[in-house]
């Protein structure tokens, strides 16, 4: 999960990074909680029994992904924030609606990020322009837009892979599923290291456009 600090202006870098961390924590916590809640509603209580269907960030925070890595990036003034939360465990065999159950659970995360883009984008639009609130709110909205589009990439373990799996299952292409499951980690690393153009076109660009739509910037 990633946020690129694309917003610039007279407000200092320190405030920008603080806003990025706030947005990242809100985004990843609600994203994972939504997975657990929808899974519970569809018949799988695994996340519920483990205390993951909650808005308590302590239940979702990953020491490295939510704290140490973003903190190191802030201290080093890397210019961007990258992080993640602990994935919510789901037993897909417990879910209703057959092959559509995992898709519904997966899309709950990006769907929640979309709602956060709408809420914080509108807050940015109608906040007093002479305060730091519009900057804070638009940063949170942008982070959630990036989280949404990044997680919709159809590579496991990202949420978009569940949609791709549904399509591949329809065409009986289990060979492609096995390939993606085996090499997904390497594919994502290559994408992040060498696919800047693709990430910009299919993640950053749409995220900026969606944020501007609601924030009005």
Write a structural description.
The chain has 217 residues and is mostly helical. 66% of the residues lie in helices and 3% in strands. The chain contains eight helices and two strands, in the order βαααβααααα. The protein has a two-stranded antiparallel ribbon with strand order 1-2. It is globular. The two termini are 24 Å apart. The N terminus is likely disordered.
Q: What would a concise description of this structure say?
A:
The chain is mainly alpha-helical and about 220 residues long.
Topology of helices and strands:
Blueprint: E1 2-4, H1 13-41, H2 46-49, H3 63-75, E2 80-82, H4 100-126, H5 133-151, H6 160-170, H7 174-194, H8 196-215
Helix pairs in contact: 1-4, 1-5, 4-5, 4-6, 4-8, 5-8, 7-8
């Amino acid at each position: 999960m990633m946020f690129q600090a694309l917003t610039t202006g007279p407000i200092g870098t320190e405030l920008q990074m603080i806003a990025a961390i706030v947005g990242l924590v809100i985004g990843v916590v609600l994203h994972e909680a939504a997975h657990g809640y929808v899974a519970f509603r569809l018949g799988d209580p695994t996340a519920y029994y483990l205390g993951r269907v909650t808005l308590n960030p302590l239940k979702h925070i990953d020491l490295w992904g939510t704290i140490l890595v973003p903190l190191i990036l802030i201290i080093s003034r890397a210019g961007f924030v990258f992080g993640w939360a602990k994935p919510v465990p789901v037993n897909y065999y417990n879910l209703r609606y057959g092959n559509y159950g995992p898709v519904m659970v997966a899309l709950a995360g990006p769907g929640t990020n979309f709602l956060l883009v709408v809420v914080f984008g509108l807050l940015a639009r109608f906040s007093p322009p002479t305060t730091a609130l519009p900057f804070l709110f638009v940063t949170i909205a942008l982070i959630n837009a990036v989280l949404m589009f990044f997680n919709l990439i159809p590579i496991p373990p990202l949420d978009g892979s569940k949609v791709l799996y549904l399509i591949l299952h329809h065409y009986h292409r289990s060979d492609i599923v096995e390939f993606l499951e085996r090499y997904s980690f390497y594919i994502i690393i290559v994408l992040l290291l060498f696919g800047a153009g693709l990430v910009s076109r299919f993640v950053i660009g749409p995220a900026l456009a969606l944020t501007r739509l609601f924030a009005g910037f």
